[in-house]
Amino acid sequence: MLKTKVCIILSILFISAVPLAASNAVFNVVKLGAKPDGKTDSTKSFIEAWAGACGSSDSSTINVPSGRYLIRNGVFKGPCKNADITIRIEGTLIAPSDYNVIGNSENWLSFQWITGVSIYGGTLDGQGIGLWACKLGNKKCPDGATSLSFTNSKDIVINGLKSLNAQMFHIVINRCENVNMRGLMITASGNSPNTDGIHVQLSTGVTIMNSGIKTGDDCISIGPGTKNLWIEHIACGPGHGISIGSLAKNLDEPGVQNVTVKTVVFTGTQNGLRIKAWGRPSNGFVKGVVFQHVLMKNVQNPIIIDQNYCPRDEGCPNQSRRGDCPGLKSVGLDMISAIYVSGVKISHITFQDIQGTSATKVAVKLDCSPKNPCEGINLENVKLRYNNQPAVSSCSNADGSIHGVVEPAGCL
Ligand SMILES: *[C@@H]1O[C@H](CO)[C@@H](O)[C@H](O)[C@H]1NC(C)=O
Ligand SMILES: *[C@@H]1O[C@H](CO)[C@@H](O)[C@H](O)[C@H]1NC(C)=O
Are residues 164 and 291 in the same domain? Predict the structure, then answer.
């Protein structure tokens, strides 16, 4: 008896819940005046669609049908009245072809202060080629805009998005929580300046999976304050690899912790797995990183920790010159380079099952700070070859352990 009653009550609840869940406000940018012709500025219609979706108290959807939409700066701001906004993009959003129009803005498309936004599909074309040419020509050019950024937001999904030819970074995740990126295709030319694929900083619980990144700078760069980051199934190259850093830009800097990078293929990249810190005072740190199941194909620096980073000798006090060492001086090695003292503490970093080929003889380089050595570096089943010969390692101030076969050996 009781069972039947419960069942009836549940059925009523369930049936009455269905229409509620299904009520979904839909905004179609074309119905709001956007022109998929690639030349009419459609920014206003996109902002209008956002205002509707964000202002709806029920879950809402923005539809972007196929075609090309010219968008100037798009700022999509919250807080919104609902936490379930879907943006379905079949078409391509294109930035103005004159790079000066957005070149001095930090971002082209920027989402701020939002919770619960999912983007499915779509292509973003940053039209950055002209700006890269300007930068490569050493002319006076604007810095360029990041194509897509999320700031101060949480519960974000980006699934199946393509990003082409960003002026600067393609995607930036800044001060966010719980961001899930899947099936992204990021493309820019191998010599395009500063076109990082995905940059994450000051964010917790970011996942990047099943994506291909071809670009001119880091495929993925991981800045200060990144926690619980998961990266899996990525093809990187051309590009500068996956990089934690640069760190120690500032004295007061939150650390990077609990990062997993697994099942990645690097093809012809400048670096593979890199941790990079300026040789400056800082209370930043990197701890708890696992690099696992990685294939290197002709990578210049497959494994590299560089705590000695100080291009143009900018603002790196407390350096000690190699020339200070009389032994080196006597063999004429003074003044060759400076060793900087980085304040960043690097600990508990595991490299496990890293295979493939190095494009240079030094396949493993751990260049840690003399005042602040790396600790708990764990190398396990690492096998890297150079030109069909054994590669070599070059390590200083690094402490840790070796498990299984590690070639090149002799590091820790
Ligand atoms: C580390 O991050 C992963 C997600 O990348 C998370 O599932 C796990 O709980 C985190 N571990 C700790 C100790 O916070
Ligand atoms: C240089 O090192 C000294 C001694 O370790 C320290 O007191 C000083 O603050 C450092 N300078 C800077 C600019 O960090």
Answer: no
